[in-house]
Amino acid sequence: MSSLRNAISRRAHKERAQPSSRKKFGLLEKHKDYVVRAKAFHKKEETLRKLKEKAAFRNPDEFYFQMIKTRTVDGVHKPENQANKYTQEELMLMKTQDIGYILQKLQSERKKVEKLTAVLHSVDNHPSNRHIYYAEDREEARELQSQASESRVTPPSGDIPDPIKRKTTVSYRELEARKSRVNQLEKLYMEMTLKKELQKKDRKRKLREDELTCPTSKPVYKWRSERKR
């Protein structure tokens, strides 16, 4: 019966608009607007009730170690600075793992660039169909040469289909993007390697500008040579 009742079309009762004499008071609040406002009000009311209940049943002897490690600034809890959270050995280990990941991505991008370059090179340079004939004497060689020159057909140069041209263009763009990514990864790898070496306890010093053979904007360091056992 409920399905039949829903099948019958009913008149849609619309809410009235704001009367013209009350337009200065803005839009007339509809029932759906009241529902949204009432839900928001009751949600805030329930939050305040739970906070009051938690404050009423608070244990004055409650303690946990996070209380020592945090401080209140304008009513907001802020933890202490955790810059020295890890030891020097742990930082070196994490740095090594990061460098290993960058090196892996760099090698992967290089392989992709080499593969894409080889494919595009083979597409651009079409292999010539050459046949080798062996003649007994010069007369037979001249005859074979004349037959080959007559049967030779020059391939048309401008009849490449448009889809192939578009795919080739897209491949060249991808090649340029991957080359730029390889350059960025190489720079990042060199910078991370330098930072890792600077963290070590070896004796080193920064070279002055007059000591550089090739002037550069980046700092250059020189390590003291030590005899390894």
From TrEMBL:
Pfam family, one: Utp11
Feature: compositional bias, Polar residues: 144-154
Protein's UniProt keywords contain Nucleus: yes
Region (Disordered): 1-24, 143-165
Location relative to the cell: Nucleus, Nucleolus
Keyword Cell division: no
Keywords assigned: Nucleus, rRNA processing
Coiled-coil segments on the chain, per record: none
Family the UniProt entry places it in: Belongs to the UTP11 family.
Role: Involved in nucleolar processing of pre-18S ribosomal RNA.
Oligomeric and partner information: Component of the ribosomal small subunit (SSU) processome.
This protein's name: U3 small nucleolar RNA-associated protein 11
Species in which this protein is naturally found: Hibiscus sabdariffa (roselle)
